[in-house]
Amino acid sequence: KGAGFIKKLQEREPGIVLEVGGHTDSDGTASHNQTLSENRATAVRDVLVRYGVNAAGLLTKGYGATSPKFDNKTEQGKFLNRRIQYSVIRR
Question: Mutual orientation of helices 2-12 and 30-50 as an angle, nearest 10°?
Fold first, then answer.
């Protein structure tokens, strides 16, 4: 569903650039979480491209554990912090 939405968005706005941001929970070292978040973002970008999304309109960035949305003191919070977040970089 996500790839279909992004493809339609790219068709309507050919110059749009989206960031695929990878995030982790706070477990582990900062360097491990940075690598994990970068790998997460890259893996999602690769799947989107396989589903026909234009790779030129996608950037990836790993944030590690620097931007939690939920409490890392609970298992549910940690689970929810392991995420991908899309942001519009350029229209």
Answer: 70
Q: What is the pTM of this model?
A: 0.93
Give 7-19 pLDDT, tens digit per residue. Answer: 999 999 999 999 9
Nearest residue to 31 (alpha-carbon basis) of 68, 72, 66: 66
Which residues 6+ apart lie within 8 Å of 75 measured at CB?
none
Q: Answer yes or no: are the C-beta atoms of 31 and 71 closer than 8 Å.
A: no
Which residue type, as a one-letter code, is found at position 9?
A: L
DSSP assignment of 36-90 equals: HHHHHHHHHHHHHHHTT--GGGEEEEE-TTSS-SS-TTSHHHHHHHS-EEEEEEE
* Cα dihedral 24, 29, 34, 37 sign: negative
Span 23-41, average pLDDT? 98
